[in-house]
Write a structure and sequence with these properties.
Elements: E1 17-19, E2 26-28, E3 32-35, H1 40-45, E4 57-60, E5 65-66, E6 70-71, E7 80-82, E8 84-90, H2 99-102, E9 106-113, E10 116-117, H3 118-126, H4 132-135, E11 141-142, E12 147-148, H5 149-152, E13 159-164, E14 167-173, H6 181-191, E15 199-201, E16 209-210, E17 216-221, E18 227-231
Parallel strand pairs: 3-15, 5-11, 6-18
Antiparallel strand pairs: 1-2, 3-4, 7-10, 7-16, 8-9, 8-15, 9-12, 13-14, 13-17, 17-18
Length: 232
């Protein structure tokens, strides 16, 4: 006999999922890990020491990922910043993953923006509180369709560029990342049991700055679907 269906007291929320380039299939998302200050020049512009230090991570909620191409300007903030990122999507997980085996866990890659309510983040930092109010909110992570690793390979170099209204704002080469993708996966897996459906935002290069309603953002990287976003 088929297993009985759960009797939920309210309708369960939809499964967060990301589109895949050239396919009608979807990538289901379990967790979203974001690494902070992973480009030296960005660490400097944020007032931190760029020397290599143990990586730190925070999380966004999976339902903050948004592939609609639209970013509604969030409430309770007057200083929202763009942060351009490479997204890594895991196809399998585990604990204590070695760096040598880490890329075997990657399903694919995509482009994303870690939108940040910078004024609220700054208040939280000064008070010694968590950053979630500045980092995790509705539509906080615009994303482009994913590309499988079987198509693009595992990029470890190449220039990522963000323009706002056609003017370059952020540009950085993946080879400038302080912590490389295998190191991030290995480090995270020491603290969490990673699983298929987890995604990692790998940090942002220098040039972060504010967005205004009406701005058109475009993030590009060779081999990946561009991310185009309208701020509303």
């Amino acid at each position: 006999m088929p297993a009985a269906q759960p009797d939920y007291v309210i309708a369960p929320p939809p499964q967060p999922a990301l589109p895949i380039a050239g396919s009608t299939a979807l990538f289901p998302v379990r967790r979203v890990y974001c690494i902070g200050r992973n480009y030296a020049a960005h660490a400097v512009e944020m007032g931190h020491d760029p020397d290599r230090e143990p990586p730190f991570f925070f999380q966004k909620t999976p339902d903050s990922l948004d592939a609609s191409g639209r970013f509604p300007y969030p409430v309770m903030s007057e200083d929202v910043h763009h942060e351009a990122e490479l997204l890594v999507a895991l196809g399998k997980g585990g604990e204590n993953i070695s760096e040598d085996a880490a890329l075997d866990h990657v399903w694919g890659y995509g482009l994303a923006l870690d939108m940040t309510r910078r004024d609220l983040q700054g208040i939280a930092k000064k008070a010694g509180r968590p950053w979630e109010i500045g980092k995790s909110f509705e539509h906080a992570a615009p994303v482009a369709p994913l590309t499988p690793a079987t198509t693009i390979g595992h990029p470890d170099a190449g220039v990522m560029t963000l323009t706002v209204n056609g003017t370059p704002r952020q540009q950085g080469d993946l080879n400038q990342m302080i912590w490389k993708i295998p190191e991030m996966i290995a480090h995270l897996s020491q603290y969490y049991r990673l699983a298929a459906g987890d995604v990692i935002l790998t940090g942002t290069p220098a040039g972060v700055g504010p967005v205004l309603r009406g701005d058109q953002l475009e993030l590009t990287f060779d081999g990946l679907t561009p991310l185009r976003v309208l701020v509303e």
